[in-house]
Every structure is written in structure tokens, then in C-alpha cells.
Amino acid sequence: MGEAARNEGRRILVLNGPNLNLLGRREPDQYGHTTLKEIEEDLRTYADSRGAEIRFVQSNHEGELIDAIHKAMGWADAMIVNAAALTHSSIGLRDAIIAAAIPTVEVHLSNIYRREEFRHRSLIADVAAGQITGFGAFSYRLGIEAALHLLDTKGS
Ligand code: DQA
């Protein structure tokens, strides 16, 4: 079976928002020492072992993240979204997730409910299938697992 056929229905976009390019250096007590590149490499290997295809986008700009979601329409079967600070403020990103209608798993490295009150509100939570928060870099692995579960049980 060709690569394209093997991954049919299991294509995942992993979207990372502002400042996550600094992972590893940025507030390590909060976010750990793993870099985004290391997280992406781990996810690529993991997704491959699960017969899924994965793409990554990180941007510090709201519009670019929205564009990436639009581009994912017609390609992605699911999305893992860590919108970082935009989680708490971006109606535009929320609307893009609704418009794209791609099953979405919201992911955070830190437990947003154990932090400042302004982080307790997510504008994405109720338009996502679910939320994973507080497991550090491992949150992304759990995100992939959740996304594959959604795809595997779709329609059942
Ligand atoms: C974050 C939590 C957000 O509140 C924060 O603005 C981030 C990272 C997380 O992954 O824990 O930048 O999304």
C-alpha cells in the first residue's frame, strides 16, 4: 500500500501559537526543557508508528495561524492546537476552528487551571472535541492519541 493510501483519513495538523518557538529556553519551570523541534520529532516518529501523517505549523501571528487552519481544510482529518496566549483571547482563531469543522484537540503544556485566573478561560475549549492540559511535552502525545481515537471512532 502506498504512503498516501496508508495514511488515508489519519492526517493531523499540529498548530502551535505565540512564543512556543522558544520552548526549551522559555520559562523552563513552567514549560520544561524540551524544545519544539524535539517535540515535533517525537510526534513525527510516534504518528508514523500509528500510521498517521503529521504536519506542523508554529507562528507568533494570529492571522498566520488562521491561514494555516484554512489551508488544512481538505487535508487535515484532525488538528492538535496549542494556541498559547491566543487561547485566552482570540475569537478569530475560535471562529476558524468552527469554520474548518476539523475535529480539534486543545493542548497545553502547563495546567492552565493551576495558573493565573486569566488563563482559566479558553475560547477554544467548547469548540474543541476535548482538552489536554498539564502534562508538559507529553500533552502533545496524548493529543495525538486523542485525535486518533476521534478518527478511529468517527461515526461509531
Ligand atoms: C500554554 C498556556 C498559555 O496560557 C500560555 O500563554 C502559553 C502556553 C501552555 O501550553 O501551557 O503560551 O498554552
Automatic annotation (TrEMBL):
Which reaction(s) does the protein catalyse, per the Swiss-Prot or TrEMBL entry? 3-dehydroquinate = 3-dehydroshikimate + H2O
Q: In this chain's numbering, which residues are marked as the site (Transition state stabilizer)?
A: 26
Q: In which pathway does it act?
A: Metabolic intermediate biosynthesis; chorismate biosynthesis; chorismate from D-erythrose 4-phosphate and phosphoenolpyruvate: step 3/7
Gene3D superfamilies in the cross-refs: Dehydroquinase, class II
Query: Which GO molecular function entries does the Swiss-Prot or TrEMBL record give?
Result: 3-dehydroquinate dehydratase activity
EC nos: 4.2.1.10
Please give the SUPFAM superfamilies that the UniProt record associates with this protein: Type II 3-dehydroquinate dehydratase
Q: Which UniProt keywords apply?
A: Amino-acid biosynthesis, Aromatic amino acid biosynthesis, Lyase
PANTHER family documented for this protein? CATABOLIC 3-DEHYDROQUINASE
What is this protein's function? Catalyzes a trans-dehydration via an enolate intermediate.
**What is the name of this protein?**
3-dehydroquinate dehydratase
- Organism for this UniProt entry: Candidatus Methylomirabilis lanthanidiphila
- The coding gene here is aroQ
